[in-house]
Amino acid sequence: MRSSFIFTSESVSEGHPDKVADQISDSIVDLFLSKDPEARVACETLTTTQLVVLAGEIRGKGIMDADGNWAEGVKDEIEKTVRETVKRIGYEQSGFHWESFRFENNLHPQSAHIAMGVDESGNKDEGAGDQGIMFGYATDETPGFMPATLYYSHKILEKMAADRHSGAAPFLEPDAKSQVTLQYDNGVPVKATALVVSTQHSAELSNEAGQQKLRDYVKGVFADILPVGWLPAEDKIYVNPTGLFEIGGPDGDAGVTGRKIIVDTYGGAAPHGGGAFSGKDPTKVDRSAAYVARYLAKNVVAAGLAKRCTIQLSYAIGIAEPLSVYVDLHGTGTVEEAKLEAALPKLVRLTPKGIREHLKLNAPIYSKTAAYGHFGRDAEGDHFTWERTDLVEPLKAAVAA
């Protein structure tokens, strides 16, 4: 493992068009799970100038029957939920306004053939909703066991969004991106070598004085978020490097669910199986297995069994048990990887149903995940249960046996 290197991760704000799509999709997941905890949802969203389109497959009691007939009032609830999500993000612009965009709902019933293969029946456990590989990762370089480059990229944009919503920075608009480049010595982040923010802004900043005001504000955010002494040289701080950024969000670029999978996970510091999370109910292992893989990896590192941990799980459609469990401690472990590979499935049942029950995933908890990362967040009540470290002691006991 290299001990000294420079690494970069990026994040995008809640107002980025792809994140708008993710949040809409997950707001629909939450709406349907609030009606039926066993609902099946695959909801894709497209956002563009004054238009939001939903498409996908659904099934659930009190939502839609097998013939595609909506339960009374549900179509209106869907549109209301979509508009409220966009309003919460803050879009009230001529090119994309929560109150006036056109809305299309193209959701339809889930395939009966898929349902037949994955539903629990008789002595048959609930099968995986698809084949695939899923990864979980954890590192001890931040308190949240996340890569520092991504951790700070998220925090920068969260601070800017909080200032926008509170009125502390009224010149900010919702769309923004950040990028953090850090130098690592002996595997530990020690300073930033470059920082980038591109943020949509109001027309009042479209002059030289306004651009300087924006730069000064963003530099202040960097100073607030990064550890003391970490700021790079002035010429390595980039704020709207292409110039003006007035037209943004879905009016500037079309947004689609599931296009920010690296931002959603580990910022490129770990492998990704390719499956997006947002818009999917927790029977989809793209989501639930990635969550449990993170849960297991985080508990391995929190238990002091390694400084870094990557876990891979794989599944086949209609089959309940994982086809493989792989652990890589990157040369930082205090225990054999094979021992963890044997122990982990005994601590958590890694079937779709076992994962959902252990992490309590059959609940309307997903809207909060759809911006600023699915991992490294604080476990609060029913939210982000996969960030808990309640396996630390059982893990220690299992590997000591």
UniProtKB/TrEMBL annotation:
GO molecular function: ATP binding; magnesium ion binding; methionine adenosyltransferase activity
Cofactor info, note text: Binds 2 divalent ions per subunit. Binds 1 potassium ion per subunit.
S-adenosylmethionine synthetase N-terminal domain boundaries: 5-112
GO biological process, one term: S-adenosylmethionine biosynthetic process
Location of the S-adenosylmethionine synthetase central domain: 126-245
Cited PROSITE patterns: ADOMET_SYNTHASE_1 (PS00376), ADOMET_SYNTHASE_2 (PS00377)
Enzyme Commission number, as recorded: 2.5.1.6
Residues given in the record as K(+) binding sites: 44
Annotated protein name in UniProt: S-adenosylmethionine synthase
Native organism: Sphingomonas jinjuensis
Annotated gene: metK
